[in-house]
Design brief:
The chain has 121 residues and is mainly α. It has six helices and no strands.
């Protein structure tokens, strides 16, 4: 059975490979479209535009295609945090998205004001 560190590295590696596995298709396509246009216009502008646009599309596609791997890594990290002391505070704050284990005084004041506003209506 793999240790937690090995499992985490394996999940991170799988996410990285997934994101990079198809990261060249649109870049190559953009460059292939841009070469004849650039020759005709005698400019490097189309190559820069279509090449970078293709790279951006590759990055976006890589991110969206790897949702399963990202969720597996996220679930593993949450399980790992749940096994540590004080994990209940960390898990509660991470579900809110703040990443903080305790609220500051200002945050408590704001939360109290919002709660008071909700109850007064």
């Amino acid at each position: 059975m793999a240790t937690a560190a090995e499992r985490e590295k394996e999940l991170q590696r799988a996410l990285g490979e997934c994101a990079l596995s198809s990261s060249w298709i649109f870049t190559l396509g953009g460059c292939l479209i841009a070469i004849p246009i650039g020759i005709r216009r005698k400019s490097m502008g189309p190559l820069v535009f279509y090449g970078t646009t293709g790279a951006m599309v590759d990055i976006i596609q890589g991110i969206s295609n790897c949702e399963k791997e990202r969720e597996a890594l996220k679930a593993f990290m949450e399980e790992k945090r749940a096994g540590q002391p004080g994990a209940a505070d960390a898990a509660g704050s991470s579900s809110r998205g703040s990443g903080l284990t305790e609220r500051s005084g200002v945050q408590q004041d704001i939360a109290q004001t919002l709660d008071d506003d909700k109850t007064s209506k």
